[in-house]
């Protein structure tokens, strides 16, 4: 079982525990704000299941129908997470509106806050693990899940402050008002998750620092070639796709040209382990004199 898969399963177990704690906190208090926090945790659990499925699909090897692999499955999961976050926010807005129209006194607010605080602490620690490991494993689904979980931590802290103020001041309308603010924050975070995921589905190029590294590797390891041009990149989950044209002297043998390609591929794969490279070899008269200069 891969590390990413183990982490995804861990998210389901932790999400279930946190949801139970938050539902209990809402049940003993009747707080609309704590209900909004619990509703967001139902989305956390659902998206953890979605991430698990996506990681399993993305790990499948390439086949006849999917020659480039199944890496983009994780982006679909991340988009689904964003959509579900937005749906949760709309439900919370509805509950907040009802609370504003009919504000009510909370029962056992301090006990509820303590229980909710414990759930928030668990979420905070796990969000850190998800984002850190997701970036290390180049897993968009885990990173999106971690970022979503972190918004839950932030909003839970805001909810706690709002509920505490309502208890201290006796202004019970602060409870649904805080729930409304939580919903707006969740809407914003959901839109960001969708935006980041769509960039992967649209074959966005690798970051500038990775592109610079690739150009340097080609320049220093393609000795014997004339230049490289039309460098194109894209990323899909943990995989990075690189392709470019390599110009060699017209009299160079196929064997020697292939040796240069092998040398460049080995260097790129050492820098980017999960990379797929396509090199198109061209004779010298195809030079554009605007690409990557190969160092002697």
From TrEMBL:
Residues 207-284 form the Cation efflux protein cytoplasmic domain. It is found in: Cell membrane. One of its GO terms (cellular component) is plasma membrane. It is a multi-pass membrane protein. The lineage of its organism: Bacteria, Pseudomonadati, Pseudomonadota, Alphaproteobacteria, Rhodobacterales. GO terms for biological process: intracellular zinc ion homeostasis. One of its GO terms (molecular function) is zinc efflux antiporter activity. This is Protein p34. Keywords: Cell membrane, Membrane, Transmembrane, Transmembrane helix, Transport. It comes from Thalassovita litoralis. The chain crosses the membrane at residues 7-29, 41-61, 73-93, 113-131, 152-171. Its main location: membrane. Belongs to the cation diffusion facilitator (CDF) transporter (TC 2.A.4) family. The keyword Cell membrane applies. Residues 11-202 form the Cation efflux protein transmembrane domain.
């Amino acid at each position: 079982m891969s590390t990413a898969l183990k982490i995804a399963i861990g998210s389901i177990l932790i999400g279930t525990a946190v949801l139970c704690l938050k539902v209990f906190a809402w049940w003993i208090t009747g707080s609309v704000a704590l209900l909004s926090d619990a509703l967001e945790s139902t989305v956390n659990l659902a998206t953890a299941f979605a991430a698990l499925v996506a990681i399993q699909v993305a790990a499948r090897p390439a086949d006849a129908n999917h020659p480039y692999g199944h890496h983009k499955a994780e982006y679909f999961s991340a988009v689904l997470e964003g959509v579900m976050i937005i749906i949760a926010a709309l439900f919370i807005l509805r509950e907040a509106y009802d609370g504003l129209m009919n504000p009510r006194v909370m029962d056992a607010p301090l006990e509820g806050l303590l229980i909710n605080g414990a759930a928030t602490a668990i979420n905070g620690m796990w969000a850190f693990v998800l984002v850190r490991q997701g970036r290390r494993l180049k897993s968009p689904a885990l990173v999106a899940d971690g970022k979503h979980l972190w918004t839950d931590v932030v909003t839970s802290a805001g909810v706690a402050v709002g509920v505490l103020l309502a208890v201290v001041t006796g202004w019970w309308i602060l409870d649904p008002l805080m729930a409304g603010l939580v919903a707006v924050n969740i809407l914003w975070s959901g839109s960001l998750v969708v935006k980041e995921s769509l960039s992967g589905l649209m074959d966005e190029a690798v970051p500038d620092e990775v592109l610079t590294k690739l150009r340097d590797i080609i320049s220093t390891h393609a000795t014997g070639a004339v230049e490289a041009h039309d460098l194109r990149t894209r990323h899909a989950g943990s995989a990075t796709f690189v392709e470019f044209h390599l110009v060699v002297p017209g009299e160079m043998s196929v064997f020697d040209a292939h040796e240069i390609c092998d040398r460049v591929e080995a260097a790129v794969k050492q820098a980017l382990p999960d990379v797929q490279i396509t090199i198109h070899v061209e004779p010298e008269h195809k030079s554009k004199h605007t690409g990557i200069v190969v160092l002697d």
